[in-house]
Amino acid sequence: MTDQNVSAPAARSRRISPLTITIVLVVVLVLAFLAASAVITEVLWYDQLGFLPVLTTQWIAAGAMFLIGFLAMAIPVFFAIDIAYRKRPVYARLTAQLDRYQELIEPLRRLVKWGLPAVLGLFAGFSSAAQWQRVLLWMNREGTGATDAQFGLDVSFYLFDLPLLQGIVGFASAVTLISLILGVATSYLYGGISFSGRDVRISKATRIQAAVLAVLYLLLQAVSLWLDQYRTLNDPQGLLTGATFADVRAVIPGKQILAGIAVLIAILFLITAFTGKWRLPVIGTALFLASSLVLGVGYPWAIQQFQVQPDEKSLEDEYITRNIEATRTAYGIDDVEIERYDAVTDAEPGALRNDAVATANIRIMDPEVISRTFAQLEQSKQYYTFPNSLNVDRYEIDGQVEDTVSAIRDIDVENQNSWYNRTLVYTHGYGLVAAFGNQRSPGGEPVFLENGIPTSGKLGEFEPRVYFGMNSPEYSIVGGERDRPIEVDYPADAESGAEASADTAEGAEAAEEAPEDDSVEATEEVDGERQNLTTFSGEGGPVLNNIFTKLIYALKFQDMEVLLSGAVVDGSQILYDRNPIDRVQKVAPYLTIDAAPYASVVDGRVKWIIDGYTTSASYPYSDVTDMNALTVDADNPAGSPSNPVNYIRNSVKATVDAYDGTVTLYAWDTEDPILKAWSKVFPGTLQSVSEMSGDLLSHVRYPTDLFKVQREVLSKYHVTNAGAFYSAEDAWRTPNDPVSANQNLPQPPYYLTLSAGAGAEPNYSIYSTYIPDATGEGARDILTGYLAANANAGSEDGEISEDYGKLKLLTLPKGDTVPGPGQVQNAYNTDPAVSTELNILRQGETNVISGNLLTLPVGGGLLYVQPVYIEASSGTSFPLLQKVLVSFGDDIAFEDTLDQALDELFGGNSGASAGDGDVSETETPSEGSDGSEGSGSDAEGGSGGSSGGGSLEAALREMQSALADRDEAMKSGDWTAYGEADERLKRAIEEALEAG
């Protein structure tokens, strides 16, 4: 062995040049400054928002966990290597190969001795730091009062204790195993372990070190096996989530026995540390491996194959019941009210008389279709934009609550090439545009209740500027002590919405009531257009009050203009992280955020309302699902990474002020044990519901993503009988959306005012339908269930409506054959009268767009409503509502308005009026109109009674002429001429049908 005391020839010392030292120092200082700037900008952001303790708590917890993880890995590994080296045999006889290994390693020994533990410690530290949420939850946990059905432990053990304990045991096992491997490797390199033929020689020190580490590892495995028995209650494999018959009778006892065997083998290794006899622990280890195969695999398999499978339904009954009860509780569907709904299918006259409120509020404006109409009519300038999907909301107008579709007119800086314009001039959106969901204009446009620039209408005075929105720029610099304003507020020549719609009674009234905008500070020409200018006056971001602050933000956004521009004056604020979802996620990192935030006018401000969920995948016996997969539908086709959950609560309602970005969190579900723990972790960050105004509560709704998850779980778990559940004889699924481009995606849920069941009061609700879960030839698209959740939170200050969140499931008898959405859409597409009119509408340069297919439980049955839009196929194009399709049972009607269609469907008088019932009164019939109501048809294709004159040839010629005139009017934007041509087309269609 090489004599370690013999020094190598002295090497000529090499001096490091001053230039090298300087370069290294500069690089280190730059990296340090960049890191410091990232830290400081985060501190400034949280501090300005009033949530600095959230950031410091995270950093302290993560830092402490990093330090613990680093030391817990680095120290044992260091001592494992160090002890193995120090206790090496002094006169060990080494092979030539080992001698060469030592010659290679010896120069690096100190580096490996100190560096390897440090590197492993860094990995362990970062891994541990990522678990800060789990640790803080455990430190602040509370009992739930509910126990699991197998062990009788409080559910909090599974939510908080078990995940942490298993994490600790797993980490400790990894540390012990790595220490054992590195200690043995070091001993081998330095002669502590040697091989001579079949003999293996192990020094005493190596034996003791290896045996002690083996004892620790085996004891940890015993603890792990003991904890694994509790994990079976969350095991999603097999028939259901949770311990089944085979688990209770074989798997759980097997893990307990194996844990005991691991302890016994650990004792044998401990004895070996003193006796040096390896025979017994080696035999014990072999037996342990064999026992693992027998008790962990073979015995459970035998129980399952030979005892369970022959009588699985009976033996699993108890465990299926456990799974059903736990799943319904964990997903908040245990109190769902189930009601048999014997739906009639005959459309009798006056059938809707008892459903007047629901009928009057049927939404004919599809928020997924008319967003382009909003953009065309209300965008005003190229630097504004509207979202692809509008919000469904409700407002009290003239003492009556109206369902609406609305959206923010947000800023769009994509076409702004200069930093000055992007950052200092075009800083905010302007206004909220809202339209009645149940009304249309004679030309098919939405009837706005709030629109125009400056904003005017029915919503009263409110702050219209939107500095924090879904499309806001990455950052803007606003405010400050300026000689003159530079932020574009809105075009100086823009018409108000009230003026633009003054031809209607509502528009004239809005024009008279349009408020003066006192916040406009100046009017100047910007980019060749006269613009009203303003200056931000709120507190929305950190203040750029010195050169250091400007520098760190210049580095953060990699824009030196932040530092160098003279337009960044004293008092300027920098607004960033402006997306409402991002802001809530940063101040409440424990929440899963709903994908559908919406903006409402609340207490004179535009506020984003956002739902937050607390979730877990550790609730005992509850079915595990992928939340992100369940929230995918035709309106939300983009999936996210897997997010397994088996417990969910809508625990927090959050608001974000669109003007100054203020985030407010409200503790919505105060009984949620996870939220209770987080409220202790971040004290003072959650406000009570009692602090919510009545105006805010009137806009709060039942969350979309929660409802999607619950409807999917209820598709199986509406069945509470274990035998029926096992047979899956009544399994359902959400029907695919028949109007989506991708018809393999589920139909989204819809918000409507409806009455869920016979005698139920009409309420603002979110609903979805069910059809049988079958594929292939046996698949039938008939309705089996209708799920609705009361989405009305009330309008009293600090008081949630008692009925909010109540789930109502209407189940249709198995003998009934009420058509599902797919069948209804197929009937629409194949009905002779309907298809004739649709084909006529498609002629020329127009496209036909089918809107959302709505389903309502009215008239003792189920009514389907679908708006039909047209748009030009070239040039300036946007959808306009042209027709409405309705069906009830097998009867179909297709008319210009919903009111007309319902009357046609129900024998000439539906018994109730729809929201668009006054459209025909505002229309001025062209000369020669006979006032006919249009056409309708039943399933057999019989045409409705419409009168008309003239031959078929003359009618077809008139249709062609009207189509050409209508297309020309659409291209030129002459909507008056378009309306006149459209009326001619309708009359010609009626005459052609009569003549045919």
UniProtKB/TrEMBL annotation:
It is found in: Cell membrane. Keywords: Cell membrane, Membrane, Transmembrane, Transmembrane helix. Residues 495-537, 908-975 are annotated as: Disordered. Residues 509-527 have a biased composition (Acidic residues). InterPro entries: UPF0182. PANTHER family: UPF0182 PROTEIN SLL1060. This is UPF0182 protein JD276_09365.
